[in-house]
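Journal club prep, notes for RB
We'll compare a predicted complex against what the paper describes. Inputs for the zinc ion case:
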Amino acid sequence: MARMHNTVSKSQSMADRTVTVSRLEEVVSTSDEFDQVVSQALPMLLDRATSATKRFLRETGQWNDDIEHEKFALRWGSEYLERFLICGRTEVPCRPLFLLDSLVAKQHSKPDPFCYHPELLRPLGRFLDGLTARAVISRDALIALYRHCYGWGAGEVIAATGLNGLESQRIYKNFRRWRESGWQRTIDEMGMTEGELKELGNRQQRQTQRFNDEAERLIRVAQAHYRKSEPDHYPCLSRSQWGEMFAEGYGCDYRIWHLALCLDCMQTAWGLGSSGSAMGEKPRLELQVRP
Ligand SMILES: [Zn+2]
């Protein structure tokens, strides 16, 4: 019975999909109409932008069959979709599907199609970008973000994310592996030299406040970009939504993943994980270069 139901709903959703695709190929005349048609087809449009990005990577010899490349394509698919949602409203009348295709093709024909923020190419930016990039494919690096952003130890991560006993054990392991090898490996992958790391450390000592302010601004850029690796865990939540999740004890992966990659939600959800006890001031970025 369940299987039959699945089959029925599957063919139903395929029919819906066909309707949506053909609607997206037709002309929309107003920006409201654009919003309405497009909002009903977001997963399909994301899929289309992601597939085009994969195809581009394959054709230019930049593709590997691994999770890292899958996430890269997904992230850029989301990035293009967001730009499409903004620019499409001003491009009416248009055929949404073809507008998306041409926007993606235009991006891919640029000399450096994946350049998203020039400041992320300088040492501080490279460090933050490299760390965040690693976090979306490595759980150790994800947990290490709490350490590098806020200077926390395992106990503080567990309190802030409201984890139970079993999950807590994993956090300690994540910390240990990161210290033993993960950090060094990530630094090597970024191509950061010992000299550059020292220079970051020096700047931090000389102008602590300015350094942390700059790091906070850059990490927001990197976090917003890399959150798109996980569309299911992407949306920011309100204080009451976070509160419910903490109180009911669900969404463990969501909490760990999103809070590591969203400074704003970290501040919004602050204090919910510690069963009501005071946790001091809301966290601000205090960058730690070493593990
Ligand atoms: Zn958020």
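Talking point for the session: The chain has a mean pLDDT of 91.
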